[in-house]
From TrEMBL:
Record family assignment: Belongs to the small heat shock protein (HSP20) family.
PANTHER family to which the protein is assigned, alphabetical: HEAT-SHOCK PROTEIN 20 FAMILY MEMBER (PTHR11527)
Name of the protein this chain belongs to: HSP20 family protein
Limits of the SHSP domain: 32-144
Gene3D superfamilies (alphabetical): 2.60.40.790
Record-linked InterPro entries: A-crystallin/Hsp20_dom, HSP20-like_chaperone, Small_HSP
């Protein structure tokens, strides 16, 4: 006689995997982040701008990397676990730590010159202004302290 452990969530895990496979087939990416943590984000249209707000509490602007490539904006970085002093021990950890990465699809023609980013009160705000000529190489975007101002229209030639 063979004894098997009952796993009440096994069917749910299979359904979750199947859902991810279907989403990937139709949209190209699964809903989870490719590298660890997927921070909460909102994407809002504001006139000719798209504003992306990402919750990244406890980080400094230097901890956040933003890259733009043709039709893609990537926000990534790493949140380290809180240090535990000698004589202390961790009873529970509720805050996530580790690498994070979120990718956002951009309209064709967006260049680094038309993207501004700011970090204030634990929220990264990236403002993307739509233009017409894409850049062929990935470009780093500087993260400034505070909320980014609206971007003046810059048209590609």
């Amino acid at each position: 006689m063979v004894l098997r452990y009952w796993e009440p969530t096994a069917r749910l895990d299979r359904a979750d995997t199947e859902f991810d496979r279907i989403v990937t087939r139709f949209f190209g990416t699964a809903p989870r982040a490719a590298a660890g943590i997927a921070p909460a984000a909102d994407v809002i249209a504001d006139g000719n701008d798209v504003v992306i707000s990402v919750e990244l509490p406890g980080l400094s602007p230097a901890d956040i990397d933003i890259e733009v490539a043709p039709r893609r904006l990537t926000i990534s970085g790493e949140r380290n676990a809180a240090e535990v002093a000698d004589g202390q021990r961790v009873l529970a950890r509720g805050r996530r730590h580790g690498r994070f990465r979120s990718d956002f699809r951009l309209p064709a023609g967006v260049t680094a010159e038309n993207i501004k980013a700011g970090y204030e009160h634990g929220v990264l705000t990236v403002r993307v202004h739509e233009v017409t000529k894409p850049s062929p190489e990935p470009v780093k975007i500087a993260v400034e302290d505070g909320h980014p101002a609206p971007i003046a229209a810059v048209d590609a030639e």
